[in-house]
Design brief:
Helix 1 packs parallel to helix 9 and helix 3 runs parallel beside helix 5. This protein is an all-alpha fold. It contains nine helices and no strands.
């Protein structure tokens, strides 16, 4: 989820794939941001229980995403987006231990929407371009608008020393703006046909929709109507 991303711009010359992808999925991205659960999170008005539930749902999604990523590490397309330094599961485990205690595994379960989301991610083991779509949707949001969530959550819930928000800490990447630029350059340099590119864009739109449905599940439980 990228909360503070800039709207796509139209540049002269041949269209870069990263710009095409951003423009084609902008409305889906905005729908995810404009959800009531997301607004409460960004306003700092979401109860701690709601934030904790979101962290738990992230855990299930990232276990699936990172397992598929490792399985596709040698793939011609998907392997270009295998960044071991990006993996979030260890940080999510630390956050859940802080938020819920050492018995956190017994206290969390995926919502119905998360189960659907995880199942779709797992299907991408046979669709490298689809894996890239889910990778882009998650990680580029984490290193963009996710940094605002990190600050807001730390302030709203009194979290210090990154305990409870380590999911959003990417010290191993160095400069996040430089990483984002390099990521877009990898998208732009992908050697794929028009049909593959279209499938990647369509899957990215679906990924945003699935994320929005996860927020809807959480919103019904943790935000006021």
């Amino acid at each position: 989820m990228s909360v503070t991303a800039e709207a796509p711009t139209t540049a002269p010359g041949p269209e870069l794939f990263s710009e095409r992808l951003k423009a084609a999925t902008w409305s889906d991205h905005q729908a995810a941001e404009d959800h009531g659960f997301t607004r409460a999170l960004m306003d700092g008005t979401l109860p701690l229980s709601g934030y904790t539930a979101m962290v738990a749902q992230h855990y299930f999604a990232y276990v699936a995403l990172e397992e598929v990523g490792r399985a596709l590490a040698g793939d011609r397309l998907a392997g270009r987006f295998h960044y071991p330094e990006l993996e979030r599961v260890p940080a999510l485990v630390r956050d859940l231990e802080h938020l819920l205690g050492t018995d956190w595994r017994e206290r969390v379960e995926p919502t119905p929407a998360t189960r659907t989301y995880v199942a779709r991610i797992e299907q991408m083991a046979d669709r490298p371009e689809g894996f890239i779509a889910h990778h882009y949707t998650r990680y580029m949001g984490d290193v963009s608008g996710g940094q605002f969530i990190r600050r807001t959550a730390a302030k709203a819930y009194g979290l210090t020393d990154d305990a409870g928000v380590s999911f959003y800490v990417f010290d191993a990447l160095g400069s996040l703006p430089r990483f984002r630029t390099g990521y877009r350059e990898r998208l732009d340099s992908l050697e794929m046909g028009a049909a593959t590119a279209d499938r990647l864009i369509a899957e990215t739109r679906l990924a945003y929709q699935l994320n929005t449905e996860v927020f809807a599940d959480l919103g019904r439980l943790h935000t006021s109507p």
